[in-house]
Amino acid sequence: MDPKVSEGGLNVTLTIRLLMHGKEVGSIIGKKGETVKKMREESGARINISEGNCPERIVTITGPTDAIFKAFAMIAYKFEEDIISAMSNSTATSKPPVTLRLVVPASQCGSLIGKGGSKIKEIRESTGAQVQVAGDMLPNSTERAVTISGTPDAIIQCVKQICVVMLESPPKGATIPYRPKPATTPVIFAGGQVRADPLAASTANLSLLLQHQPLPAYTIQGQYAVPHPDQLTKLHQLAMQQTPFNPLGQTTPAFPGLDANPPASTHELSIPNDLIGCIIGRQGTKINEIRQMSGAQIKIANAAEGSSERQITITGTPTNISLAQYLINARLTTEVTGMGTL
After folding, report:
1. Please, what is the Cα angle at 184 between 181 and 188, to 5 degrees?
2. pLDDT tens for residues 13-72?
3. I need a labelling partner for 164 at 20 to 30 A (CA). Which of 50, 53, 66, 260 fits?
């Protein structure tokens, strides 16, 4: 264990996000909020639970590393109590492990996995916990779920080691946070289509917002210019409100006075043949997801004879193109670091 994040060590403030089911959240909150109040007071960490009537909720834990570890310990032991209580009312003989799901920016997952899976193997062996990094990003985000299972003590040691990795390898580029969505009323898509799917609705709104909202702030990521993280996160938060929008090409009251048809431009990328599959995905699922989230038109040329690369043409507003480039880059990073195989 690196001493810089040991209890009582370096006073670094971290934010860790957990994804929990409604029943788990109820256990953490307790009657009249007494359990979460006690956790906050005894750990010294800030513990916030996302609002909304969703099947899943985000629990955000913020504070110095030692406070975060105490909060995790209290949550892990509370879940173990729940398991023991459930077993007393059932015929089960073997006790299932405590399981927690972290939400981690995809750009940090490569460091967590390590070259050829070396780091994640080391964490598993040294803590005794099972650790799994999801192969795909959570819907409408650039974050992945990292599932930890084991005894409370194993989970605490595992979280400590994950915190070391997160401190040593900060997120790269813009992070679009995962926000669980409830089933809601229908939302109007571009073109007047009506869908009740909240995840699809939020991607449609993100696309519309990106086309109507000016983005003056950009950062350079490798060869790409991507919207500044603060701007992208702000747009994503607006998109998550799921406000109905008029079809593109009509004036929208949400952004009065803005040009509804900003000029389109084209950008071309060359992708190695052996990596094009991770961009396209099974039956085109990944490329369609990138098209939806970015709002850009994306065409992949057929392989030219004797060429080791495929040409990708992206058409749209500068913002559409930047977001499409960022999402394509994220998919390539996934493939190169081996995350897609886990």
Report:
1. 105
2. 889 999 998 889 999 999 989 999 999 999 999 999 988 777 889 999 999 989 999 999
3. 50
